[in-house]
Specification:
Helix content of chain A: over 70%
Radius of gyration of chain B: 24 Å
Strand content of chain B: under 5%
Largest sheet of chain A: 2 strands, antiparallel
CATH topology of one domain in chain A: MetI-like fold
Structural class of chain A: mainly alpha
CATH architecture of one domain in chain A: Orthogonal Bundle
Distance between the termini of chain B: 44 Å
CATH superfamily of one domain in chain B: MetI-like
Shape of chain B: globular
Radius of gyration of chain A: 25 Å
Strand order of the largest sheet of chain A: 1-2
Mean pLDDT of chain B: 87
Mean pLDDT of chain A: 90
Oligomer: heterodimer
Largest interface: A-B, 100 and 94 residues
CATH superfamily of one domain in chain A: MetI-like
Structural class of chain B: mainly alpha
Number of helices of chain B: 14
Largest sheet of chain B: none
Distance between the termini of chain A: 30 Å
Strand content of chain A: under 5%
Number of strands of chain A: 2
CATH architecture of one domain in chain B: Orthogonal Bundle
Number of helices of chain A: 16
Low-confidence stretches of chain B: 247-255
Low-confidence stretches of chain A: none
Chain lengths: 310, 296
């Protein structure tokens, strides 16, 4: 019955919604161009791109681009992307929860606000400026580490930008410095939403602060942790291009530990003849990333529907 | 109220830890500023440091005297940020409003069309080929505005949620009964009532335009179109080229390669507007970040 009624919506009834469709149109057209056309263009990964013919009319080459990619560089860029993301995710979550608990426990409202502002500040800074700051620390000739610490102590200075072994730590530190405010803020909101009665009851039972954190705060934060983790896992094949390209100053001797899928895609694209492998790496990233989001979300949905993203 | 000794001990401990963390967060920026007010000679001799060994405003004087490139880039950044943010807010707020009207036919399909762009993307190569070979956007100001930042599905969804939850439905109904058109309701009721979310989203959009260097990296090599971030990027490249090959300097005649302190001064000037507005708008920034985590 209801269906019948719906179907009978007449032209005159539809007409009243035209203004709304007009308001949707510009955005929809933009998304079509900026997002949907490139989605179909992803088939370029299976082609030998010819500028004159365009993506759709270039010749198919089957899996050639992928064979090339996987015979040479795929292992390193996938390894780097995945391992950095796993470390970022774990440390980011831990730091976020820890800082959120500390800030929440601070009694002085003013101090609280200052701390909160300070940890969010690096989040707003462009990665290029971050790379300038990192350079001030690491520059071989006049960086703080060499000139201010190692030299006065009589130790050998280090050419930081050509020593790969330090960079996993440097990048993790920079990322933590820049990104931990984000998680912290979300967990602060999460803690603020916890019913105060839980803590009152725990106090009456003589629970220590540590016990309260373990038994009340952290369990109550699980939904936020799950949401952030799903988002993190969904992005596990993507990397912050600026962090891995700009902060190591695109230094060739560091590629082994700084090359991720995103930097690889860009550098290959800018290399003559590199478009094929660039597209193949991009295809891999998009498709696997998509399958991961769907998979993780599906799993979460199965266990607790409320925590799923969609 | 009398508080126990352990309470105060705990407060002192956590405040001490947080002060330390605050310093870690802020000190790198202090370093940037201090280097910009140090004399170049002292930077070269003693290295960067948190306290200027030899105070000097030479870097800022240099910028003021030879700053055409920088001023131009600064103007470009401001222009791109303003146009981009306005376009983004216009597109996303009108789309969000239309999608917040529950009776709209095909509403779910359109919402999914928006949402799907968050799940899947074509990656850099197809976008790059499309923008450069089909739309010929290279070396135009649109290259800095249009790709990627002009609309984000996340913004649309967050704004729509706000319109649906924070504006009383009765207001819409009243408007409808009075015979107001959708456009009228949007302009006179929804936009004014939705100001908080629009400010928040506008701030983040503005910030991403202000800080963006990727669009410029992909599509712009005309120095006239450089934004501050692109100028900073170019200066790193030039310094590297100079190091790699001492005679390469003539190839990069964009700006006489700035000395160490000048580079830091330009970086600091690029950061300054954010530092200035941040204390006033901190609340909106915080809100925006917290919103980002609510499910779409």
């Amino acid at each position: 019955m209801k269906r019948e009624k719906k179907r009978r919506m007449t032209w005159t009834q539809m007409k009243q919604y035209i203004p709304l469709y007009i308001m949707i149109l510009p955005g929809a057209v933009y998304l079509f161009i900026n997002n949907y056309i490139p989605m179909t263009g992803i088939i370029v990964a299976f082609k030998k791109y010819n500028k004159a013919k365009g993506i759709y009319h270039s010749d198919w080459v089957g899996l050639d681009n992928f064979t090339y990619l996987f015979q040479r560089d795929a292992w390193i860029i996938i390894r780097n992307t995945l391992s950095y993301n796993v470390v970022f995710l774990i440390l980011g979550t831990a730091a976020g929860i820890l800082l959120a608990i500390l800030i929440t426990d601070v009694v002085s409202k003013r101090a609280k606000k200052i701390y909160q502002s300070a940890i969010m500040l690096p989040f707003l800074i462009s990665i290029i400026i971050v790379s300038y700051i990192v350079f001030a620390f690491l520059s071989a000739e006049n960086g703080i580490l060499n000139k201010g610490i190692l030299e006065p102590l009589g130790l050998d200075t280090v050419k930081w930008y050509s020593e790969p072994k330090y960079w996993p730590f440097i990048l993790v530190l920079v990322n933590l410095w820049k990104g931990c405010g984000y998680g912290t803020l979300i967990y602060i909101a999460g803690i603020a939403g916890i019913d105060g009665a839980f803590y009152e009851a725990a106090k009456l039972d003589g629970a220590t602060r540590w016990q309260q954190i373990k038994k009340i705060t952290i369990p109550c934060l699980v939904p936020s942790i799950i949401t952030l983790t799903i988002m993190g896992v969904g992005r596990i094949f993507s990397s912050d291009f600026g962090l891995f390209y700009q902060v190591p100053q695109n230094s060739g001797s560091l590629y082994d530990v700084t090359n991720t899928i995103d930097t690889y895609v860009y550098r290959a694209l800018m290399t003559t003849g590199g478009l094929g492998r660039s597209a193949a790496a991009g295809f891999f990233q998009s498709v696997v990333g998509f399958l991961l989001v769907m998979g993780v979300n599906g799993m979460v949905r199965k266990f607790s529907k409320d925590n799923a993203m969609f | 109220m009398i508080k126990s000794k352990s309470y105060w001990r705990y407060q002192i401990l956590i405040n001490a830890v947080m002060i330390l963390i605050t310093l870690i967060m802020v000190f790198p920026l202090v370093l940037l500023f201090m280097s910009s007010i140090s004399s170049d000679a002292s930077l070269l001799k003693y290295g960067y440091s948190f306290f200027p060994r030899e105070f000097s405003l030479a870097a800022y004087q240099y910028i003021l005297a030879n700053g055409t490139t920088l001023f131009r880039a600064y103007g470009m950044t401001i222009l791109v940020t303003i146009i981009g943010t306005i376009l983004n807010l216009t597109l996303s707020s009108s789309m969000a409003y239309a999608l917040s009207v529950k009776k709209l036919p095909f509403r779910n399909i359109i919402s999914f069309y928006v949402f799907f762009t968050m799940l899947f993307n074509g990656g850099l190569v197809p976008s790059y080929l499309m923008w450069s070979n089909v739309f010929h956007i290279k070396n135009t100001i649109w290259a800095l505005i249009v790709p990627n930042f002009m609309l984000s599905a996340m913004n649309v969804i967050l704004i729509r949620t706000y319109f649906m939850t924070s504006i009383p439905e009765a207001l819409y109904e009243a408007g409808k009964i009075d015979g107001a058109s959708y456009f009228y309701i949007f302009r006179k009721i929804v936009l004014p009532m939705g100001t908080p979310i629009l400010v928040t989203m506008g701030l983040f959009t503005g910030l991403s335009y202000w800080n963006d260097w990727t669009n410029g990296l992909y599509y712009v090599n005309d120095t006239k179109l450089y934004t501050v971030q692109l100028l900073l990027n170019k200066m790193i490249q030039d310094a590297q080229a100079l190091q790699a090959n001492a005679s390469a300097s003539s190839a990069n005649a964009l700006m006489k390669i700035p000395t160490v302190s000048v580079r830091m001064a330009i970086a600091f000037v690029a950061l300054l507007p954010i530092l200035v507005i941040y204390p006033f708008l901190q609340k909106y920034f915080a809100k925006g970040i917290a919103l980002g985590a609510v499910k779409g």
